[in-house]
Amino acid sequence: MNPLALNPSGLLNEFYISFWIPTAVLTAALLIKLPTIIRLWRDPLLRAVGGLLLLACAVFVFVTPSTIAWTNRVTGVPNISAPWCYSLLTAFCGSCLLLIIAWRNGLSERSAATRRAMRWVICAYSGVIVALWVLFALADAPLERLRDLDTYYATTPFMREEILLYLLAHSVACLITSRLIWNWVRTERLDAWLRWGLKLLGAGYVLNLIFDASKLTAVAARWFGGDLDWLSTDLAPPVAALSAILIAVGFILPHAGQYLHDRWRVRLAHHELRPLYLLMRTVSGDGVRFLLRATPELRLIRRETFIRDVLLQLARRIDVDLATRAYGAALELGNPPARARALASAVSILDAVARGRTPEPYDTAPGPDTTDLLQEIAAVSRALRHPDEIEAVHARAAVPAAESVPAHE
């Protein structure tokens, strides 16, 4: 018989997750949020997120067995880490509730019921923290336990009540928070990044409920003379670590995802303009000067401005009749209207470039209307990446002009 079947803790040890992993992920989340928190310090929601992540980091730093032993040794009080860690966890739970309530309802639109709920959460969880310290002061727990304190002292007066109190407070907070999150996920008009962040948060709080169920089951087994300590010492810790990772990523995703999406959109737009930019450089003989410290947004603006400036100079040489014929030819070749306009503009611009780099300095005649062209430079630049299509449109657009030439000529 497989010995792991008789000892589930042996199997769980194979999947142990160090508490320093969620600590690192939570710290990374805090560091990612920190510049925004500092820049927008007056925003209470951002301050709340920062405080929440800081509390989460503190929880996983202080529940690590090595840190528990250090805290007990420095203070000289055996197991004083218990009420300290329980207090941090309780404060974290209350902060989660407050943040979700404020985040969902908006601080500027808080109703009387929302303010009343937030006051209730603050009072209730502050009272729980005070009670934890009072119960520890009344309890007799002289033997230091680094990993199995919850089950070892499950039947000890006052420690029993303390353990049950923190687990119930944690369970209630996670249950309410996960319910609020999943209700929010089902609402409409959520940003995709926010929706996925909320889903990860919801999954993290569901895992927290599994953590609580494991702890409560192991403690209850001790009350009735059983031994399911492996649920508390081997199952609950990795579940808590995985939960913290999901919660940290859930908080990071809406901000970091949107930030990366915006950066990618700007860089993609800058890259898409490259063919038209290079073509305009052949007209002006110059280009945009590269600035090492320029932001992606500034580089995009400078490239767009350069292209439009050169196009305005080139507009006098654009053959409007050719552009019209090219548009019709592109439609005949099966292109949708937007694509046909881009191909026609590309044909007319290439024709203008081929006939001369710049307009004559004495030419003061008004040029064609370039409003649409200047607004569609991205589409035109994308069209320039397909020279075969441009050549097909140009050849078809040139047919009427060739056929119109008299035979005797």
UniProtKB/TrEMBL annotation:
Record's keyword terms, sorted: Membrane, Transmembrane, Transmembrane helix
Annotated TM spans: 15-32, 44-68, 80-101, 122-143, 163-182, 203-224, 236-257
A Pfam family of this chain: DUF6545
Domain of life: Bacteria
InterPro entries named in the record: DUF6545, MAB_1171c-like
Record domain DUF6545: where: 263-385
Protein name as it appears in the record: DUF6545 domain-containing protein
Organism field: Streptomyces shenzhenensis
